[in-house]
Design brief:
By secondary structure, the protein is of the alpha/beta class. The protein has a single domain, classed as Leucine-rich repeat, LRR (right-handed beta-alpha superhelix) (Alpha-Beta Horseshoe), CATH 3.80.10.10. The protein has three helices and seven strands; from the N terminus they run H-E-H-E-E-E-E-E-H-E. A seven-stranded parallel sheet has the order 1-2-3-4-5-6-7. Strand 6, helix 3 and strand 7 form a beta-alpha-beta unit. The chain starts with a helix and ends in an 8-residue tail after the last strand.
């Protein structure tokens, strides 16, 4: 049910107003019109820096890949509103993610992150953060909640992993 609501209220509006690109090569042919890029399940290991040239990008789905990290230059995606990174191997987010002020949703479900950069608290528009499927202790969950008091954060039950 939650996934259906996610689709209806977060993803569907993007589908109505913009073309969905599922190939980086095709997106790079029309970089000024790309707002919605879905590179799900493409076995990407390293973040393609060409994505950073898509200055009007609002929705980026890199889920089900093999990413370990994001570049510090991710902040260049200053219009990005939704960042979907679930089912990767990301273990750390660059602090520069806190400079993407337009972000309202970050999905990190089933990654290896247990701490977020302190600068993420600068994301005043962030309304949803999905950290399910990640082993995070109760103390670290509380610290994340303190960083983002106005954000709906999804956690699994805390682990006894400290």
């Amino acid at each position: 049910m939650k996934r259906a609501l996610l689709f209806l209220f977060i993803i569907f509006p993007f589908l109505i107003y913009s073309q969905i690109f599922t190939s980086l090569e095709e997106a790079l042919k029309k970089p000024n019109i790309v707002e919605h890029l879905v590179l799900r399940g493409k076995k990407i290991k390293i973040f393609p820096n060409e994505i950073l040239t898509l200055t009007n990008l609002k929705f980026l789905d890199l889920s089900k890949n093999k990413l370990i990290t994001l570049p510090d230059s991710i902040h260049k995606l200053e219009n990005l509103e939704v960042l979907i990174l679930n089912k990767n191997n990301i273990n750390v987010l660059p602090s520069s993610i806190g400079d993407i002020y337009s972000l309202n949703k970050i999905d990190l479900w089933r990654n290896n992150i247990d701490e977020l950069p302190k600068k993420i608290q600068e994301l005043k528009n962030l309304r949803e953060l999905d950290l399910r499927g990640i082993l995070i202790s109760k103390e670290k969950q509380k610290a994340i909640i303190r960083l983002l008091p106005y954000t709906k954060i999804y956690f699994d039950k805390p682990c006894k992993c400290d």
